[in-house]
Amino acid sequence: MIDNYITLTDLQAEKLDLFYNLHLNATFNLTSIKDREQFYIKHLLDSIFFFKKHSPPFNTLCDIGSGGGFPGVVIAIFYPDAEIFLCESIRKKAEFLKFAARELSLDNIIVLNNRIEDLKTYKFDFFTARGVAKLLDILKKSWNVSHETSSWLMYKGENLPEELKVADQFIKKHYLEVEYERIEDPFCRSYCFIRRCG
């Protein structure tokens, strides 16, 4: 299904299928997409597509507002040697993420039941944010837990140009490098990659 677009090991395929079934059997609704093919394309492939294409380097990644585990849990499946922090302020969603990590035997996942702006003692190499907040808000709220070479991947829609305009002053002030890419098939997505330059 998604192996037409990316290469999967047997273990990765097994864990993705189990993750799909965990969502189907969840006691509360984490996604409106229940159809298997749509779930795989719009959630699983969307989560990992940029990483499979560009292979950005990181040892620690923080998924901001991880919700149902997209993209954080999916990234953890593909990057077992990296520490993947799932930052989720809503307790029942955080509990689901902990449950999913146990069921999928993903020892590299650390669930933080907090808002990103309330974290004080961490420094992350990489941040992801999908369907959480405006680009500028994400940058501001996560800035104190970034370091001089941190990067962000924002999963955005067609309104990305407007969000970049709003964030322009912050981007210039902090000398951030910005790249973006629009995908139309097999799903619609604007990926915005932002990098600190020291």
TrEMBL record:
Pfam families attached to this UniProt entry: GidB
Protein's name according to its UniProt entry: Ribosomal RNA small subunit methyltransferase G
Main subcellular localisation: cytoplasm
GO CC, alphabetical: cytosol
InterPro entries hit by this protein: rRNA_ssu_MeTfrase_G (IPR003682), SAM-dependent_MTases_sf (IPR029063)
Residues in the signal sequence: none
GO molecular function terms listed in the Swiss-Prot or TrEMBL record: rRNA (guanine-N7-)-methyltransferase activity
Record family assignment: Belongs to the methyltransferase superfamily. RNA methyltransferase RsmG family.
Function of the protein: Specifically methylates the N7 position of a guanine in 16S rRNA.
Species of origin: Calditerrivibrio nitroreducens
EC id: 2.1.1.-
Cell location: Cytoplasm
Binding-site positions, S-adenosyl-L-methionine: G65, F70, I116, E117, R130
Record keywords, A-Z: Cytoplasm, Methyltransferase, rRNA processing, S-adenosyl-L-methionine, Transferase
